[in-house]
Amino acid sequence: MLVPIIIIIIGLLAGGIVNALADDLPTDRRPKLPHYPDGTPRPISAWLGVTAFILGQRASPNGAKLSWRYPIAEIGTVIAMLLTYSIKAGEPKVDGLQLVYWLSYMAIFVLITVIDLEHKLILFVVIIPSCILAIVDAITTSAPPNLERSLTGGALGFGVFFVLYLGGIAYVYIANQVQGRNISEVAFGYGDVMMALLSGLVLGLGDMLFAMFLTVLLGALGALLYLVGQRVAGRNSSMIAALPYGPYIVAGTVLMMLFGPQIRIFLVGYAN
Fold first, then answer.
1. Is the dihedral of CA 116, 209, 263, 79 positive or negative?
2. pLDDT, tens digit, 9 for 90 and up, residues 161-172
3. What is the DSSP letter of 56?
4. pLDDT digits (tens, 9 = 90+) for 2-61
5. Phi/psi class of residue 269: alpha, beta or left (left: φ > 0; alpha: ψ in -120 to 50)?
6. Are 184 and 159 in contact (CB under 8 A)?
């Protein structure tokens, strides 16, 4: 019982750091101590979104309120870490160091998801250190993937999504030329390419293949729900926003991290 309590505490603190970084990194600001949307420093008792809401310190003296993202991100980080511990702790070749890496990935994935949902950005300042962490993980732990499979998985993810990225640019260029349109957004941004690189480094070559399949499947499902939502919303369809692609890559990665053997058995009939 002690370990889950420790993980809950770590998850809440990690979620608080995620929120602080999500506030400042997308605007090219140096990370600061937790603050309200108007820049007013939050009291220590409100550094966590959960405590800010519970203690009635959601708003600054000027009335700037913290959004529900703050407690949701913190609770989501706790749930992700508890789920990771409950599933992975009993696996062979898993020691304390490996669990630290996996719990760290969960906080990183929450950060990437929050920033991508809010700003449609996947930041190099987050991805590059995370890629280094994944490589160090492959070197210093005995659980899969080893360094070779980690690097080949990263190369696969980067290569496939880079081709998709170039294809998106080519499509936009041709559509603009042929149809006289002025499309500026592409389906895959370069941040998605870097996220696929991180996913491959974390999972390794074999699991990355399945993660890409899950990503495409989830992306197609998300697009279908988006179209249905627009049709149902009618005139209010502007309220229905399409998700950026990063969260789908994160979801595919997390599913393979936590349920890889079960997914492989379901899809191809064997675990390895």
1. negative
2. 999 998 878 767
3. T
4. 889 999 999 999 999 999 999 999 987 788 999 999 999 999 999 999 999 999 999 999
5. left
6. no
Q: How many structural domains is the chain composed of?
A: 2
Q: Is 203 within 8 Å of 253 (Cβ atoms)?
A: yes
Q: Which of 67, 89, 111 is the last residue of a domain?
A: 89
Q: In terms of residue numbers, what domain contains 37?
A: 1-89
Of 89, 111, 131, the position where a domain reaches its end is 89
Q: Is 59 helix (H, G, I), strand (E, B) or coil?
A: strand
Q: Is the pTM of this model over 0.85?
A: yes
158 and 250 inside one domain: yes
Query: What tokens appear for 269 in the block?
Result: 């009939």
**Paired tokens of 42:** 């939050």
Residue 36, token pair as written in the block: 């309200």
Distance CA 2, CA 23 (A): 32
Residues 38 and 168 in one domain: no
